[in-house]
Write the structure tokens for this entry.
Amino acid sequence: MVRAILAGTKTQTRRIVKPRKDRYMGCELAPCELAGEVNGGDYRNAYCEPGDRLWVKEQTIRVEDHGWIGPVYTESDAGRQALEWGYGESDDPDHIPPHASKRRPSLFMTRAMSRITLEVTAVRVERLQGLSRGDAMAEGCPFANMAKGPDPRQWYAELWDQLNGAGSWSANPWVWVVEFRHGA
């Protein structure tokens, strides 16, 4: 999805709403109560708030292990070239051949290494399957012709199941819908 963010086609993300304890009475609020609270304008306990800045974690190539200065992002021109042809000039003694390129999972990216910052523009709560065709496109659907052709919600349902486990789309959980703009 990093490519979609950089291309400007991904402007939304969804995260499952986790039950929380009510701040006054210690009881759990159901997602539908939380949805009313958030849609009514109380964003204090939301996943994030409009105006917040989020940083994007992404996979990098461990060029530092070979004496180079990093990071090299896999979703960059240098990263794609390194994975296909190697990193550095082929006659350089520090050349990293493609088979020796080790990837650093995005999970381990620090804030200091992040190159993409997003500004949250809106937050709402809804059922996962409540997304519209336009919302599915805003999730970064790579097929531009789906805006008017086949239903992009099917693409998103398959992506959701791939990321969250088989049957997770069918469960239709409450989700935070976070809208953002790149370049903040």
Q: What stands out?
A: The chain has two domains: 2-56+116-182, 60-113. The beta strands are 12-16, 20-21, 28-29, 53-55, 60-61, 72-73, 103-104, 117-127, 174-182. Confidence is low (pLDDT under 50) at residues 24-29, 39-44. The helical segments are 2-7, 31-39, 77-85, 133-138, 152-164.
